[in-house]
Amino acid sequence: MREYVISESEAGLSLLKYASKMLQNAPKGLIHKFLRNKNIELNGGRADAHRVLSPGDRVAFFLSDETFDRFHDAGEESISYELTLEPERVLYEDDDYLFYDKPWRLLTQRDASGRISLNDMLIAYTGKTGVFRPSVCNRLDTNTSGIVLCGKSVTGLKKLTEAVRERRVRKYYRAVLDGRIDEDMHLVAFISASDGEGRVSVSDRPMSGYKEIITDLSVIRANEEATYAELALITGRKHQIRAQAAHIGHPVL
After folding, report:
1. Phi/psi of residue 219, nearest 5 degrees
2. pLDDT tens-digit profile of 191-205?
3. What distance, in Å, lies between the first and last C-alpha atoms of the chain?
4. Mean pLDDT, rounded, of the chain
5. What distances in angstroms separate CA 95 from CA 41, 55, 157, one per listed residue?
6. φ/ψ of residue 214, rounded to 5
7. What is the pTM of this model?
């Protein structure tokens, strides 16, 4: 038998999700069977699979060591604890949240290239690699620097994710654009889905399969060759800034 006490960072997970993460190699149907047959108990008794866990709850797995180890992801990828966030780039941190100033050329999340990402560094920094893993809540392109919001607990991750999804978090970018722009602009256009090579098309009028993109452009300073501008995303489509800037004849440099 293996018993685990739910921590603050794991609180908020359902019993089923917790069990699924602990037994990552087990089919979901088998986990439901374990719950029905009391091979998995919560606080000494049977519990509904969707019961939300609280700090201090005890989850017991009445399985042989061999069975538990076979289904538990013992081979979970290890992350080097030599990876570290740069302290001067941590803008804010508490038990639930961490806001980080991501430098350019650093991936926000790992991609097919396998290169180290900010998300890997966050996991190593917090030392949390078990049932709950901290995660970034917004993504920036590799060649974009700026603030990335990170959830360090279930509560923090849920609240930040909801805030981003509900657009209660405003996104402002700064970029150098080709050519001179003398006045602030409210840009409205429509963007296509990207093709297999990441290319998109922009139209001034609605078209089938296109989605609306809205950006407020504020000029900070300009000369005859370039404009330094702040761009506020009203919508948040992929490639929005680069595509819309190029569409008005002032591509990002």
Report:
1. -75, 130
2. 998 887 778 999 999
3. 60
4. 88
5. 29, 14, 11
6. -130, 130
7. 0.66
Query: How far is it, in rounded angstroms, from Cα 217 to Cα 235?
Result: 13
Would you say 70 and 47 are in contact if contact means Cβ atoms under 8 Å apart?
A: no
Q: Which domains does the chain have, with CATH numbers?
A: 2-71 (3.10.290.10), 87-169 (3.30.2350.10), 172-247 (3.30.2350.10)
Output the six-digit token pair for 114.
């396998």
Structural tokens at position 112: 């097919």
Using one digit for the tens of pLDDT, what is the confidence trace for 132-156? 678 898 889 888 999 999 999 888 9
d(CA 40, CA 63): 8
Three-state DSSP class for residue 147: strand
pLDDT score for 74: 45
Secondary structure letter of residue 199 according to DSSP: -
How many whole angstroms separate alpha carbon 57 and alpha carbon 45?
12
Which contacts (CB < 8 Å, 24+ apart) does range 191-198 have? 191/237, 191/239, 191/240, 191/243, 191/244, 194/238, 194/239, 198/239
Looking at 72-205, list the stretches that DSSP marks H as alpha helix, in order from N- to C-terminal side.
Answer: 118-126, 154-165
pLDDT of residue 133: 75
